[in-house]
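Table S5 (text form). Sequence records supplied for joint modeling of the four-component complex.
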Amino acid sequence: MNPILIPIILPLASALLILLISEKTRYIKELLTIAVTGICLLSAISIIASALFGVSMEFASAWAGSGIAFTLKADKLSSFLLLGLSLFSFVIAIYSFSYKQKGNAGWFYFNLLITASFSAGAALADNMVTMLFFWEGLLIFLYSFIALSQSGQNSKKTAMKAFLINGVTDLCLLTGICITGYIAGTMSMAGISLNKLTLDGWAALGYVLMLIGALSKAGAIPFHTWIPDAALDSSAPFMAYVPAAVDKLLGIYFLTRISVYLFTLNGFAQLGLMTLGALTILIAVMMAFVQSDYKRLLSYHAVSQTGYMILGIGTLNPIGIAGGLFHMINHATYKSCLFMTAGSVERQTGSNDLSKLGGLFGVMPVTAVCFIISAAAISGIAPLNGFFSKELIYAGTLNTGYTIFFIAAELGSVLTLASFLKLGHSVFFGKRPEALNSTREAPFSTLLPMLILAGICVAFGFGARLPAQFLIDPSLQGLGLVHTEAIAGFHFNGLFWTSIVVILIALINHIFGLAAASGVASKSSDHIHYAPGFKEIYAMAERRMFDPYEQTMKHLPSLANILYKVDRFFDYLTDDLPSFVANSFSRTSQRFHTGSYPLYMALTIAGIAVYIIFTANYGGIK
Amino acid sequence: MINSFTLDWFFITLIFSAGLYCMLVSRNLLRQFIGLEIMSKSCLLAVISVGSVTGNLALAQALIITMIVIEVVVVAVGLSLLVKNYRLTNSIDIWSLNNLRG
Amino acid sequence: MTYHTLLFILVATAAMTAVMARNLLLSAIMLALVSVGASLILFDFQAPWAAVFELSVCAGLITVLFVSAVSLIRNEEGKVKDLRARFYAMPLVIAIVAVATWFYGIPFFDSLKNCALSGGRNNSLGSILWDIRRFDLLGQVSILAAGVFVINSIFPRRKKQK
Amino acid sequence: MTTSLLAYLLIPLFTAILIPFAARKRQKLADILATVTLLAGLINIGAILFNPANIANSFAGVPEDGFALLMIFVIYLVALCVTFFSAYFIGEDSKVNRVPYYSLIMTSVAAMCGIVIAGDFFTLYIFVEVLAVTSFAMITSDDSAKGLEGAIKYFLLTFPASLLILFGIAFLMLTAGTFSFENIKIIIASGMPVGPVVFAVSLILLGFLIKSGVVPFHTWTPDAYEGAYAPVSAYLAGIVTKISGVYAVIKISIMFRLFEIRAYHTADILMFLGMLSIAVGALAALRQKEFKRMLAFSSISQIGYIILAAGMGTPLAILGAIFHLVNHATFKTVLFLNSASLEKGAGTSDMRKLGGMEHSMPWTSWTSIVALLSTAGVPPLSGFWSKLIIIIALWDGGAKTYAVLALLFSVVTLAYFLIMQKNIFFGKPTEASRNAREVRPAMLAPVVVMCLLIVALGVFFPYIYAYLVETIAARIIL
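The corresponding structure-token record, covering 1364 residues in total, follows.
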């Protein structure tokens, strides 16, 4: 078998196998999943090695005919992505080994493996229709993943929300792909890239529609709203896996593909993308800053960080794109790690509420260390990976000349750090509540993945040259981008000093907040939360006034009612009206045929008279 | 001066409408047949009038003889239906013939 | 006012009387008068064969049929409540028809007369016509046979035997 | 009128006269005589129609046109079915008097043959009257009050038709000097003004429209069919009213093609009345509770198709009209005979009292399914093809609205027949149907033969079409 098929077929087959395994067995499903994802990781390594040092693997098979072929192509970007996806699948599989609050184990691993398989397929697919197939498959299992992760009604509702948002945007994607494929004359991405499209006429529409699909997958504003809800209504492994890792990776991957690989963008599109990125950063981080739930706070950050990637790719210069891609993998790493710490805390304490947590550093030191590392990474503190990717993005942004976006991004950084100061302070430091005194450290199977990911954060930070050389640079080459600047390395330039300033501002803000909240860490954001002007906006946000989905849903019943009436009308036209008319005519005729001879005679005579007058006038004598 | 043919037809129309009026107005089955008979007469007169004006008197006579034979059989059949109906239902009211409806 | 026109007036009057008469027997007799009038008209048209047939069959046989039918249902006669007013309105209706025909019908009949194909055919002899219309005799035989079967069917002899 | 086909008229007439004498002592002899006569006639006409030599030279050696031959065949076929059926239907205790009954049937066969082979309008009129007179008597065969009511209504409501025909003949005599079909054609061809002739022919046409029961002159039809003695209603609906009215309408509409533009308005009226009949018949049939009455309305609707096609007047439309006339004779005979079987087997043909009859009377049930599907125009049965021809002809002739409406109302046809089938034959057995028994095989035989004919006409349609074109279109239309 072609090794390129392993990451797709193996998880798929084992997912089906898992459903056959009895409910009562213990650890078989878990071990099977770990083994399968491990094999996938190994094959992903071999694939990327082949892509980096040899020829890209390919697999092609005639599928539906007429230009739609089942084509997989592991070029450098795809195999880089595949590596990331496989890594997270593997780590999550380990993490959820002993994690109890993940719903039915069989279904959880089924969904996990299916997601792994389909995401690998989407990453590797070269033909856009093939990619769409996997992409839509992910959508279906996104629903089942959320819906089956908790037994309550809320998870179903959130699952439906996620499903609808992604379903609509996937429909856009479908339309966009059709338009693009029609204009380009081929469905193969490699084929289109040979002769890139420009944004004019229908092609622009196709690009925008595909952009919507990609952004929605990545979870950018305004398609992000299901993620914070899912943070409350689903399990930590799911959050660590899908919204934090897989969706980000795929969304940004496809964004890169279309923006760089398939289309030649103009300045207007660049400005639009960067604006969108900056807005995503700011709005999401503002929301994140005031959250009081561990996972929900993290989920807003997951949205906010997407903004950096979009900003980076939107710059359209190699440095910015490299930053976007680097940030993509970095973000997945530390955000997964953060969600895992959240899961671990939830697992050990039973709570996610910041006001009920505190002082856990003493009892959960490993978790706390992992948290600190990844929080530092996400905040862009110097030698960790987040610093380097953000630095690349800042540099790319400055290269475009739009300083305002740089400032917005830095402001986002300040708030990010501030919110993590608040989070870390309220969870791991400060005074420990009485109820948490018996808390113990999480088991090894939970700690191991966190350690792995935290280790990657550190490694990619201190040895940023390594991923830059072996992952990012080849990906840029794969995209056909040429750059002259070094994309990795620690420089004591202006950006470093800016980051120091950022750290200081955040610290000052935190101290000020603490003072304002009289020492309660979980309330250290209240001075902004309840500041005049912000207060109302936040209150409206809490009421979901800005959630397009909720707003649509609110107005949907009336719309649906109108549509229902319209439908009834058509139904009436096709079903009831004919039979009603026929019946009423029939009844009239029945009433008419009274058997009364005079009536019949009169009718006959009248008919004769009309006939004779007509024929005499038109056909006859004159 | 109105010619003979036109005047004939004027009276034929009157006789015909008398018969028609009888058929329309009467409830008595027998009167229906009387009206019918009067209408037949007007028809007969029409044929002979046409035969006269076209000079086809011989043909008209042939037709009239056949028509009279048919007329007598039809009237006989009609009257026998009437009598049969009278024997069965004891009524010759045409308005009572409304058992078949719907 | 020729004899011809008088005959037509006679027939029309007799017809109206037949319709309007309260007594069914009178109606039947008036019907016979209509037939007699028609027969006279036929004589006037120089159609003696038809006139004799009309006189014997219609004025004779049909009147007999009507009178016997009237006698068979005599006791029923009074039961049927005809609206007499409608019959009394008849002269009015006929008058209206007459006026209407005078204005609309007469031009129509005139135009009909103008369409008439006259001449060239009155040299045909009766015997030749009988020859041409030979098939009608078959029809007459059929309808007479049918009449016999119908009477036989409607008034079966079997009943009398029982 | 030619004398070549006179035998088909004279022999049944002779049998009719013979029956009262021959069957005086043994009543059973009446139906044997009638059946034998009809069978002999059927074989004879079949031999002429299906003689390969005749077909090969397009009936050049046969004096009459193919339409007349075909009609004689159908007349004999339906009459034979009805006499054969009646022979077993008339029970020992029936009020029906066999001798005059069979005499009347034979006379009406003779009259119908007279209509078909008549060469002028007056002869046509005579035989139409003969046919009408016999039908009145046949309707009242069983001495029921309903039958009498139907007969009297039939008598009085179609009487204006006779007058109209006679006035039309008078006008024809005045304006054309003749009423023979051939001579009228010659006169038209001679190029003289035809307006008055058209008027005269339109009057005659109106008479025949009344006789064929077209809306709004249809009012006698349901009453006569419902009241009639059961096998007689099959005979009436299957062939009698078709020959006495529709045949002449088709004949006149063929003639109308010669009148060119002067007759267009009359043809328009004809099409309008045809469409009206389709609509009113189909809609009125929807809610009928009495099987025979529903069939009567269905008959009105089907006649509408024939009239519509005749009004269209193109060769294809006339062909469709004739083929539909033949088909109508087959399937309507089957349905009416089945209603008679129901009366015999279950004692009633009221839909409200029947249900689930397929268990007790399976043959009746399945034959009626075949017939109703054919009526509704479901392929590959014969009714489908004739309706298809008619609709195609309408579409080609430019009457697209009529074509669409005709198509629509065949759906309604299917609807009411399915309602009927559901109410009577499917569903839960009722009290009446639990006690019902299938009628004897001899009574099923005519129905089954007709059903086979329906299927055969449908399945072998290509041959039938070629045959129709050769026999009918080649001689009378083109």
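Note: The helical segments of chain C are 3-20, 24-44, 48-72, 84-88, 90-115, 126-132, 134-154, 157-161.
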